[in-house]
Specification:
This is YkgJ family cysteine cluster protein. The protein has 113 residues and is of the alpha+beta class. The chain is 24% helix and 18% strand. Helix 2 packs across helix 3. The relative contact order is 0.27. Bound molecules: iron/sulfur cluster (2 copies). One iron/sulfur cluster (SF4) binds next to helix 1.
């Protein structure tokens, strides 16, 4: 039986691969307001232009590019809304992970007692 090490943390290497993962980027109401303000848009306009329904139709998600990457990814690894990026983004991979994440994520494992 394997037991998760509670002291294990992942240090992001900013490869940008999680931003290219073709899945929902869930945004809460408060996050939408903050992102809209950050990009200088009215919240309703931002919702119309830059969000869609999540796969389970219960949340809002940021829209994707045609290749499945996040619309707010700029270049290889820059987030255009970095100061106000959603908790889903900052929480990966320490708070949550998607199936097969280790094959794409370049984060380094560290132990923090
Ligand atoms: S919002 Fe930023 S950090 Fe989050 S997936 Fe999009 S580009 Fe990546
Ligand atoms: S895939 Fe992993 S290492 Fe790359 S940016 Fe995302 S969290 Fe950081």
């Amino acid at each position: 039986m394997s037991i998760d090490n509670p002291d294990l943390r992942y240090l992001c290497q900013r490869c940008g691969n999680c931003c290219r993962w073709p899945g929902d980027v869930i945004v809460t109401e408060q996050e939408v307001e903050a992102i809209a303000a950050h990009v200088g848009m009215a919240t309703d306009d931002f919702v119309q232009q830059y969000t869609r329904l999540s796969a389970n139709r219960q949340h809002l998600s940021l829209i994707d590019n045609a290749d499945g990457s996040c619309h707010f990814l700029e270049g290889v690894n820059s987030c255009r809304i970095q100061p106000v990026k959603p908790a889903q983004c900052s929480g990966f991979p320490n708070q949550w992970k998607f199936p097969g994440w280790r094959e794409v994520c370049e984060a380094i494992e560290v132990t923090e007692p």
